[in-house]
Amino acid sequence: MKRILLLGAGGPAGVNFAQCLQREEDIEIYGVDTNRYNLNFAKPYCKEVFGVPYCKELIDKLEYYNEIIEKNSIDFVHAQPDPEVLFLAYYRNKIKAKTFLPSFKTIDICQNKYETALAWKELFGDLTYPLKMERNKEMDSILEAYKKFGFPFWMRALKGAGGKASLCVRSIEQGYHWLMFWHTFNEEIEMMAQPYLIEPNIAWQSLWKDGELIVSQGRNRIEALYGRIAVSGISGSSSVAKLFNHKKANETGIKAVKAIDPKPHGIYSVDMMGWWGWIVPTEINAGRFFTMSYLLGKAALETNIPRGNIPLMYIKLAFGEEIPDGPTMNILPSDLYWLRHVDCGTHLIKKEDLV
């Protein structure tokens, strides 16, 4: 029996991950979450769930996790929220169970969109060029961004998921007031500007081991969940997506990952956007899966392509097990759509069956 401790088990990404493993009789999941209500979403997929108490010191949280690990004979720990991924990477040698993670340095860089973009400058030039917006020099920063990128340009937070603080800036006044809002609303937030890229909006999920790409699969984000009521038009999660097999996306994903980590190991979830025939990276979520990982598990089951269930392949590799043979890229058919919405469930639909 493989016993897995899942950090952030009750959030959408944690539940998706657990759903990918739910049919495996030799896997038991033990879920933890900081939100006691969210644990009710995780409970159907877990042997047991635990709330995380407030811990003033990170070392206290480490001791709490190790207590759960020892008490329940946990073999492996996986995290989905970015703060937990960074925590797990930092304490990997002190956590009393196995992990399968990129280096702490890699994860730290990838959780800073400015540092990530700097690492891509030689590969993609001005298409990924980042410009940091200075506090107390908001107007100067906006004018500099306009001079560099023209209108529109993209502004967002250096750190954070879900398109945090993002806006497509179309005027000096709009950009100035948006930047001033965030700088006065949050004293710690840092903002950046980049070129505004267009469709397709691609999510490229990849799994590596000791520098070798094991499996990967792309999808195209077609509509954002509540995107129409978000100021930026995005929400960090899709309501409509389609599996996407594209040579340039695969090439870009591989280059983007290796520019950050010459010997990738673990999970690398790469966001990309298009620009007049180019496909360029915008960020990497290292050490965790995209929120919609159950798309992979469900599609793998429906098409009888076990290798397409990348979260399950991740667990098998972590435990030193063989994984099914098959291609490294474009594992699943590209005619499958994934529809989801709040209180509506999820639906995997073939292109010809769409209404």
**Average pLDDT for all residues:** 95
The helix/strand class is alpha+beta
So, the CATH homologous superfamily of the largest domain?
Answer: ATP-grasp fold, B domain
Largest beta sheet, briefly?
7 strands, antiparallel
Give the CA-CA distance, first to last residue: 43 Å
So what's the CATH class of the largest domain?
Answer: Alpha Beta
Any idea what the shape is? Answer: globular
CATH topology of the largest domain: D-amino Acid Aminotransferase, Chain A, domain 1
Over all CA atoms, what is the radius of gyration?
Answer: 20 Å
Low-confidence residue ranges: none
Order of helices and strands: EHEHEHEHHHHEHEEHEEEEHEEHHEE
Query: What percentage of the residues does DSSP assign to strands (E)?
Result: 25-35%
Tell me the domain tally. 3
What is the count of helical runs? 12
How would you describe what is shown here?
There is one protein chain. By secondary structure, this protein is of the alpha+beta class. The protein has three domains: 98 residues, NAD(P)-binding Rossmann-like Domain (Rossmann fold), CATH 3.40.50; 66 residues, 2-Layer Sandwich (Dna Ligase, domain 1); 156 residues, D-amino Acid Aminotransferase, Chain A, domain 1, CATH 3.30.470.20. The protein is 32% helix and 28% strand. The protein is built from twelve helices and 15 strands. The strands form three sheets. A seven-stranded antiparallel β-sheet has the order 13-12-9-10-11-14-15, with helices on both faces. The chain has a four-stranded parallel β-sheet with strand order 3-2-1-4. Strands 5-8-6-7 form a four-stranded antiparallel β-sheet, with helices on one face. Strand 2, helix 2 and strand 3 form a beta-alpha-beta unit. Helix 8 crosses helix 9. The protein is globular, with a radius of gyration of 20 Å. The mean pLDDT is 95.
